[in-house]
Specification:
The structure is a homodimer of 389-residue chains. With 389 residues, chain A is mostly helical. Chain A has 15 helices and no strands. Chain A starts with a helix and ends with a helix. At the A-B interface, helix 1, helix 2, helix 3, helix 5 and helix 6 of A face helix 1, helix 2, helix 3, helix 5 and helix 6 of B.
């Protein structure tokens, strides 16, 4: 019994954490509940007034399947589903009618062949990367509707009526979903993407800020644990590609909202994202030296300390300005002087290395920093583009 | 007209490329076509013998929705769907029966509340990361079945019959799908994962092999383009995390096949994968120096050339041995001497740097290589574990 209690408590804790991490999850759950209940009641009452009959269940099904976390995803799925049902239904009715002109036996063979042909070819089409990204669901529903309608054993006029009923119930379910999704506490994928991009850049900034102190051990031991934790934040940036691509796809479906126009240049976010990731790869390499076994002697460290700390803190400031610039959607001019500072520090360090005044074992962490500085310049050029738009 | 022709030709080319890249895609498309046709015909004939009635369409729907590219994904979805339908149906029948004991008005309110409660809470449960990874589809279908059955306006005995019919048609569709998926040219996610892991390691090896020559420009200009292309292969490794995780999830559903037991330690692949990626991050940093603007003078290069070329080629050999070891599932002993060689080369280089015989501007590309060497040792220790299993 105690074991069960423990499980219950840990589950409750997880639940609380999930809710606190992102309260929109709770709101989303209630929204889904609301939408399903409304449409279910529509389905329930319809039974007595016998308007749509069994077809009314398609409305419920549409709500359950189409309602996604963000507005973009919901709209995309809804539009996919509506168009695919329309096309698949039309083609299905066509195939059904064509088959009904022929004899009893030929009929079946024709339908079987057409189903086989359509299903195989559309399944293959689903492998095209571009279509897969945006219209995968539509292609699936297209196959489904086509098969269900063309093979149904109804008479001609019945088929047309069934297709019509199915389409209209799906439209009812879909529009209820979209309505609730957009007008009750909407969750915009575009906004999420925007914040994600800014946050990722900021995480890199936090790392660079901590790195100088951490490496040269200028901080007290007391809050070292804290620093360590904040430093590791950049690790989520390394694998952010999938999330970003999904959000961009969703965002493309969204109408104008908040600060974003309908045709906001979402692809720019992918570019910034990939630059941020490349920067994060360098930072990961840099991070390796914090934990590596080969330690440099303190004398050498102090010699490079000034320039290195300067570089990493200037880069950090620049990145923070960039993140802020993205957040407020303004041009990122305040970042430029920081980048210049970082560059001059890097140059100074390089020239002091060239004079060869001291033995050098661990210059390693400098030139990656220089790389980061040059990366930053690239990022800036992109960010200016974005900030303009 | 010419424009349309061009579009047609380019689409045809894309299609050919898709098919050639992975011929299993074509086979998969035909399998889906076959399964859908079979089940559609079952649906078609059922209309005349009136066994399942409208419920027979659930068989078609199950095939369309459940049939995925790999066996693991199909099995996972099929099992999810079957269990969720069973549970959702049972709960739905229960709610329906409970509501029918009460009066006309209370009835509706009770059903509405229960649908709202179930839909909201299950939607929230879908956010739990562990459940999302493996049972997301089941939770969705659970909501769907529960709503459709509990809210349907049928009488009590009808509801039970409907639930029973729906479950059995879904089982028919699901088992047809699984049967065709497993017994006609199966595509195993486990095997794909295994090959992906080995290929990724090999891609890193190819980079390291090319890197030495490329950096010190010992190759002829003629085949430089070739080398460049093969070197860039590692870039796909950087973002392989999503694919790997999906494949591991699918692989866990698969029964014993080929060289893999049922409970193959799939999670080990995730560990190897993440180590491979960390190695790839370093390599990406290293690659930056190939294209960087700051060039070192040739004299300095020649001094470090020997050790560096040695290190990168030894690492490359070791990685190749590891990839081969994974492919053939043998212990990777032949890799060990290469790693030892690489380590001694790294040590030699480091000590020669310490003596400070020459000005040093670009030692940078050495210590990352040393890092890679130490990474390799970690990878080896994991690989040995795998090879044993």
């Amino acid at each position: 019994i105690r074991k069960i209690m423990n499980v219950v408590i840990s589950v409750a804790k997880d639940t609380k954490k999930l809710g606190e991490e992102d309260p929109r999850r709770i709101i989303h759950s209630f929204k889904v509940g609301l939408a399903i209940t409304l449409v279910s009641l529509f389905y329930y009452f319809d039974f007595f007034y016998a308007g749509f009959g069994v077809s009314a269940m398609w409305a419920v099904m549409t709500v359950v399947v189409v309602f996604e976390f963000s507005v973009g995803a919901t709209l995309g799925k809804g539009i996919n589903r509506a168009i695919a049902t329309l096309l698949g239904g039309a083609l299905g009715v066509g195939a059904h009618r064509l088959a009904s002109f022929t004899g009893e036996k030929v009929d079946v063979i024709m339908l079987g062949l057409s189903v086989f042909f359509i299903a195989s070819s559309v399944t293959f089409i689903r492998f095209f990367p571009k279509l897969k990204a945006r219209y995968d669901y539509a292609l699936l529903i297209f196959i489904l509707t086509f098969c269900l309608i063309s093979v149904s054993g109804y008479r001609n006029d019945e088929v047309l009526e069934m297709a019509h009923r199915r389409l209209s119930t799906i439209l009812i379910g879909g529009s209820a979903t979209v309505f609730i999704c957009i007008f009750i506490c909407p969750i915009w994928a575009g906004k999420d993407l925007h914040n994600l991009t800014a946050n990722n850049i900021e995480k890199l900034a936090i790392f660079l800020q901590g790195f100088g102190h951490e490496y040269f051990e200028t901080t007290n031991d007391k809050n070292q644990e804290n620093v360590k934790a904040s430093i590791d934040g950049y690790k989520t940036v390394l694998n952010s590609k999938g999330t970003e691509e999904a959000l961009v796809n969703f965002a493309k479906w969204e109408p104008r909202h908040g600060k974003f126009r309908y045709r906001h240049p979402w692809d720019q976010y992918l570019k910034i994202g990939s630059l941020t990731r490349e920067c994060a790869y360098r930072i990961d390499a840099l991070n390796g030296y914090l934990n590596s076994e080969m330690q440099t002697s303190p004398e050498i460290r102090t010699k490079i300390q000034e320039s290195c700390t300067k570089m990493s803190s200037e880069c950090s400031h620049a990145l923070k300005e960039l993140a802020l610039g993205i957040n407020t959607m303004t041009s990122s001019l305040p970042a430029d002087p920081h980048i210049l500072n970082a560059k001059t520090a890097a140059k100074k360090l390089k020239s002091s290395l060239k004079t060869g005044l001291w033995p050098d074992t661990d210059l390693v962490d400098i030139i990656p920093a220089a790389t980061i500085a040059s990366m930053l310049i690239e990022i800036v050029s992109y960010t200016v583009k974005i900030a303009d738009s």
